[in-house]
């Protein structure tokens, strides 16, 4: 079940994955490769800065367009 509790300016893992168009496994891969950093929460329910997720999304779209 998706937790609705996160700090302002942060996204849950489910929200970040949905925004990036990836699965939770894909999101974990992005973290493992250093393309995205956790910004709080707990090991089981991490949060990500909304600005970091948005920047990654812009970067991915720019690369896809090139």
Search tags:
3 helices, mainly alpha, two-stranded antiparallel ribbon, 2 strands, 66 residues
Question: Could you characterize the architecture of this molecule?
Answer:
This protein has helices spanning 13-20, 24-32, 50-65, and strands at residues 10-12, 47-49. It has a two-stranded antiparallel sheet with strand order 1-2. It is 50% helix and 9% strand. The protein is built from three helices and two strands, in the order βααβα. With 66 residues, the protein is mainly α. The relative contact order is 0.20.
How far do the termini sit from each other?
A: 37 Å
| Helix-strand sequence | EHHEH
Approximate shape: globular
Strand order of the largest sheet: 1-2
Rg (CA only): 11 Å
Q: What's the β-strand tally?
A: 2
Q: Which structural class is indicated by helix and strand composition?
A: mainly alpha
Compact description:
The protein has 66 residues and is mostly helical.
Q: Helix and strand layout, with pairings?
A:
Blueprint lengths: L9 E3 H8 L3 H9 L14 E3 H16 L1
Antiparallel strand pairs: 1-2
């Amino acid at each position: 079940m998706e937790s609705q509790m996160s700090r302002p300016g942060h996204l849950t893992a489910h929200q970040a994955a949905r925004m990036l168009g990836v699965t939770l496994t894909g999101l974990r891969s992005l973290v493992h490769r250093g393309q995205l950093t956790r910004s709080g929460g707990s090991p089981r329910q991490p949060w990500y800065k909304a600005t970091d997720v948005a920047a990654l999304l812009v970067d991915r779209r720019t690369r896809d367009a090139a």
